[in-house]
Amino acid sequence: MDIMQTSDSSHHGIVENSPYRTPYGRHVESGNLGGSWYFSRKEIEENSLSRKDGIDLKKESYLRKSYCTFLQDFGMRLKVPQVTIATAIVFCHRFFLRQSHAKNDRLTIATVCMFLAGKVEETPRPLKDVVLISYEIIHKKDPAAVARIKQKGGL
């Protein structure tokens, strides 16, 4: 019986010896991470677009921790299972492997990741609820802001 080895990337359509291609030959704009799903700490740190945009390792670690904390609180308020929260965190980590923290608001990306994780894990929440709860957490020090979004958006 012929079993395909995990090192055989031909079944993924990956162009051999090209660190700038992902599955199906699409170009990667973010360094040399290629199409692999697994990266060493060294690979992540050396290819970080955030680092290239002037964000140091300590700041990037803080930003990652902050969106993880946000997602945990967010998921609990949405009453989704822990697996959905974990999926949202993985989605965020994967996004920021390819994109810079300097060019993307981490809480907006985290909100989108939670919405998508709900769909993937079959625990969806209405977009209205996702946006409202995210906004409440982000603006928790400004109660008037929550009242404004409820009034303006008809939420």
TrEMBL record:
GO biological process entries: cell division; regulation of transcription by RNA polymerase II
Domain Cyclin-like per the UniProt entry, residue ranges: 69-152
Origin superkingdom: Eukaryota
Assigned keywords, A-Z: Cell cycle, Cell division, Cyclin
Endpoints of the signal sequence: none
Residue spans crossing the bilayer: none
Molecular function GO terms recorded: cyclin-dependent protein serine/threonine kinase regulator activity
Pfam hit, one: Cyclin_N
InterPro entries linked to this entry: Cyclin-like_dom, Cyclin-like_sf, Cyclin/Ssn8, Cyclin_N
Family: Belongs to the cyclin family. Cyclin T subfamily.
Protein name: Cyclin-like domain-containing protein
Organism name: Aegilops tauschii subsp. strangulata (Goatgrass)
